[in-house]
Write a structure and sequence with these properties.
The complex is a heterodimer.
Chain A: H1 3-12, H2 23-55, H3 59-71, H4 74-87, H5 89-92, H6 96-101, H7 103-126, H8 130-138, H9 143-173, H10 186-194, H11 198-225, H12 233-244, H13 252-255
Chain B: H1 2-32, E1 35-39, H2 44-59, E2 63-67, H3 73-81, E3 87-91, H4 92-100, H5 106-109, H6 117-131, E4 135-137, E5 147-151, H7 153-159, E6 175-178, H8 186-194, E7 203-206, H9 212-219, E8 225-229, H10 233-238, E9 241-243, E10 255-260, H11 261-264, H12 270-283, H13 287-299, H14 304-316
Helix pairs in contact in B: 2-12, 2-14, 4-6
The chains are: A mainly alpha, B alpha/beta.
């Protein structure tokens, strides 16, 4: 049986779509983990990004921290968090099973999502035309109002671009959680490898890819919707590409230096 | 000028002859010392055994191409069968079980996996023959590394557990740490079912057997029952209790090198030549030695190469 035949045989078997080990359950597990990670990452990255973008301070530090963050492999984070998460279970009072199947991968994915969101946020805010910001100041808006009413709407396409990158990376990498008995689509990959079940393995790969691409398309649509009329959509996409190789994104104030 | 040209010609002729000579010599020595590709499973003990055999072979003049850590048996066995590697260390019990337990072939099914090492070894050789796998099982170790159902000492005391037959009564109170392939392995899920533990309904977590993660998960309380290996240092380190396999579901698990016949055919004297090198090494590996070396690799984090070298040096001395 070829790999493709095995894959189709696996996916067309009704049993693969039922129960707690079926595709729908694993999809929910995967999405919940990824959503929680991206949400938590934005709780850290958005405020930091707004501050750096609006004030123009610490841009280089922000970029460097983001680069360092991207250099740490998620698997290493997971393995380092694991014993801590187990040891902390009794004192803090949660089920140690969470310290195995959830916390390590959750921390790893949150750390993975922070850099793209952080950089996109401060780049998006900082790239807003300074003349527009100045005239808003001239009109008497407070700094917070400027951020909320001027910089944020204009920078939103870029910020959503950062969420796109973060979400894509997290969806693809969350499969690591299965190594520590986590759920999600990674289960098909790890179990397929362990059992030499080609169909299961390829199903896992295809499902992760489909989820990643599908979510990306959805977010791209969102990005277009939130692009204010009169602002080029391309600016959002250009910056998203630039985020791909961090460091080539230099907000206007840095370029002048 | 002519003088220089002659010198140059002479020099290049000499160089050519030297290169041809070296190449010819290399071809001749390659035939005398064939390269043996040694593989192993992806856990420390398999890699350690493979490294010991590899260094023993290097000591006897062979060139070894190491491909350690190929995966679980489900990956390593096909790699061996398809000729990707020439020699792998095999556990005679679960190696035999891998081929015969899930088979419909009556000839294979008759090759019982049992509690006697020599019988398992002989049956493994017979299984290879029946399946058309051209490989030879060499001499085995007296030491064994069986699957060990481990629980924490406090669990054992609290629930009064000392053997696997005690488990079904309290199975709903336990979280079982079992390898992801357990469901499809007769020696894993099948064995649990034999004791009356309902594999489908117990709470379980999927963790690779004999690894550091499953031992940590057991010690940390994420699982209450872990499928470990009997020579695993973590058992002594954490004071785990190994539940007695009172129904003898787990087979005798001595280790033996299995070698492809097409590799043996390249040797003068075939299997006997290799056996002369490796059998004495295997004979010196008791369960205590396996555990001791395991502590050095898995706890003290020493390099497998160093531990293997020390062991072999100890034999020679």
């Amino acid at each position: 049986m070829s790999g493709l035949e095995a894959l189709l045989a696996y996916l067309t078997d009704g049993g693969a779509w039922q129960g707690s080990a079926g595709v729908p359950s694993r999809l929910v597990e995967h999405l919940v983990l990824c959503a929680l990670a991206v949400l938590t990452a934005s709780l850290v990255a958005l405020p930091l990004g707004f501050y750096i973008g609006h004030t123009g301070r610490f841009q280089v530090l922000g970029l460097n921290l983001a680069n360092i963050g991207r250099a740490i492999p998620s698997y290493a984070v997971m393995v380092m968090v694991f014993p801590v998460a187990l040891a902390a279970a009794a004192p803090i009072g949660y089920d140690p099973r969470l310290g195995l199947t959830f916390l390590p991968i959750f921390v790893a994915m949150t750390l993975l999502a922070i850099p793209p969101i952080l950089v996109a946020t401060f780049a998006g805010i900082a790239e807003v035309d300074r003349d527009v910001v100045e005239s808003s100041r001239g009109m008497g808006l407070t700094e917070r109002q400027i951020l909320r009413r001027v910089e944020l709407p204009l920078g939103l396409p870029v910020i959503i671009g950062g969420f796109r990158v973060a979400t894509l990376q997290v969806i693809a990498t969350a499969t690591l959680g299965a190594v520590l008995s986590g759920g999600g689509f990674g289960r098909f990959i790890i179990d397929g490898l362990a059992r030499r079940d080609e169909g299961m393995l390829y199903a896992g790969v295809v499902l992760v890819a489909a989820l990643a691409i599908g979510t990306d398309l959805l977010l791209a649509g969102l990005q277009r919707r939130f692009t204010p009329r009169g602002v080029r959509v391309a600016s959002g996409e250009e910056v998203v590409e630039a985020i791909g190789d961090l460091g080539s994104v230099a907000p206007p104030s840095l370029r002048r230096a | 000028m002519r003088h220089h040209r002659r010198l140059a010609l002479g020099a290049s002729l000499l160089a050519t002859l030297a290169t041809l000579g070296a190449a010819g010599g290399a071809i001749v020595s390659a035939q005398e010392q064939p390269t043996v590709r040694v593989g192993s499973d992806d856990f420390y003990e398999s890699k350690l055994m493979a490294e010991i055999y590899a260094q023993a072979l290097e000591g006897a003049g062979y060139t070894v191409d190491r491909q350690l850590g190929l995966g679980s048996r489900d990956t390593r066995a096909p790699a061996f069968e398809e000729g990707q590697v020439d020699l792998v260390p095999e556990y005679v019990g679960s190696g035999l079980g891998y081929y015969v337990l899930a088979s419909d072939d009556p000839g294979l099914a008759a090759l019982a996996v049992g509690g006697d090492g020599e019988t398992n070894r002989a049956n493994l050789q017979a299984a290879y023959m029946l399946l058309g796998i051209e490989a030879t099982v060499l001499g085995m170790t007296p030491g064994e590394d069986t699957n060990a159902a481990a629980i924490r000492a406090d669990t054992a005391a609290e629930l009064g557990l000392s053997k696997l037959s005690d488990v079904p009564a309290v199975a709903d109170q336990l979280v079982f740490g079992l390898p992801p392939e357990c469901e499809t392995r007769p020696l894993c899920a099948g064995a649990l079912e034999q004791y009356g533990i309902d594999f489908a309904t117990i709470q379980k977590e999927a963790l690779a057997a004999c690894g550091a993660e499953i031992a940590d998960a057991l010690a940390g309380g994420a699982v209450d029952f872990g499928w470990l290996c009997s020579t695993q240092p973590a058992i002594a380190q954490n004071g785990f209790v190994v539940l007695e396999d009172d129904l003898d579901t787990q087979p005798a698990e001595n280790l033996a090198p299995v070698v492809r016949d097409d590799f043996l055919a390249q040797l003068e004297g075939g299997a006997a030549t290799l056996a002369a090198i490796l059998d004495p090494v295997s004979a010196a590996i008791t369960t205590e030695v396996l555990t001791e070396l395991g502590v050095r690799v898995a706890i003290d984090q020493e390099d497998i190469e160093d531990v293997a070298a020390d062991f072999l040096a100890g034999l020679a001395g």
